[in-house]
Amino acid sequence: AAAGLSYVGAYVINTYKSYDNFLQDKYALLPAVIIICVAAVMFTIGLIGCCATFRESRVGLGLFLAIILIIFIAEVSAFVLGFVYREKVKTDVQGTMRSVFEKYDGKNPESTVVDYLQEQLHCCGVKNYSDWTTTQWFNSTGNNSVPQSCCQQEAKNCTGHLDQPQEL
């Protein structure tokens, strides 16, 4: 379990590099760091449990049980807090995404990240392609289209025009 958690934490940190313009708050890495710390603690606790079982120590097994109960209570607390604050996180991420979309001009680093995000997640805009109609880029191009990164991969002749929403 500790190895699995370490992998998840490292994967989240590695993935964060691709989306760091959307997650401008550096505390976004905090869950990944916590996951890695929990993995290290779980490894230590597992080692204590194995040693206590091998030696058949009642004190060691009692300590192992107490530590496991504390971890269980912490996990339940983290789940409840995540459930309670999920809407705040969603609102914050959408606000940050909207501000990055506003900076889109097709050339700057934020534009590259927006294109990458839309291609990887197979999406267009924050909620849908109509989000682009309020951006500076959409108004400045004047061709009534969204970026090419909004096009479906299967659509070969997609131009991003809003008169062909089935290709977006």
TrEMBL record:
The gene is Tspan36. It is found in: Membrane. InterPro entries: Tetraspanin/Peripherin, Tetraspanin_EC2_sf. The chain crosses the membrane at residues 28-54, 61-85. Keywords: Membrane, Transmembrane, Transmembrane helix. It comes from Phainopepla nitens. The keyword Transmembrane applies. GO terms for cellular component: plasma membrane. It comes from the Eukaryota. The lineage of its organism: Eukaryota, Metazoa, Chordata, Craniata, Vertebrata. Pfam families: Tetraspanin. This is TSN36 protein. It is a multi-pass membrane protein. The keyword Transmembrane helix applies.
